[in-house]
Amino acid sequence: MQVEWDVPVPMSDGAVLRADVFRPVKAGTYPVLMTLGPYGKGLAFQEGFAGMWQRLATAYPDAVAGTSNQYQVWETVDPEKWVPDGYVCVRVDSRGAGRSAGLLDMFSPQETQDYYDAIEWAGTQDWSRGDPSRSG
After folding, report:
1. How far, in Å, are 23, 25, 128 from residue 1 at the CA level?
2. Can you give the pTM of this predicted structure?
3. Is the CB of residue 92 less than 8 Å from the CB of residue 19?
4. Phi/psi at 23 (nearest 5 deg)?
5. Bridge-based pairing state of the strands 16-23 and 88-93
6. Residue 106 phi/psi, 5° resolution?
7. pLDDT tens digits, residue range 76-115?
8. Mind listing the domains of the chain with CATH numbers?
9. pLDDT tens profile 32-48
């Protein structure tokens, strides 16, 4: 798996958000699973939310099996499970959260626009399937 940390994602208003990108080693285009949120893309689930992690691991052991959980983050897919199956996982820190500068304003029109801009950005990357009609 290739990992790119804090990749700049330009927004339509000139701001720049930061994303971590997890992708297959083999060159090609892949479908993208993306999240954008305030929970800090660099904070491991089991460290930042230990109680919830333990409940998840106890109730759903298959969710934590077969992975180091090194990249597992709150409310995101585990790249160690998805990238080997041919997906790119992108995690974007919301404006004002984690590594993205600005003012955090959750569920706002601005955050909605930021997510739209991030999706449009991801769809144009060399590793992105983008248009569903493109083959990988």
Report:
1. 6, 5, 15
2. 0.89
3. yes
4. -145, 160
5. antiparallel
6. -60, 145
7. 889 999 999 999 999 999 999 999 999 999 999 999 999 9
8. 2-123 (3.40.50.1820)
9. 999 999 987 888 888 88
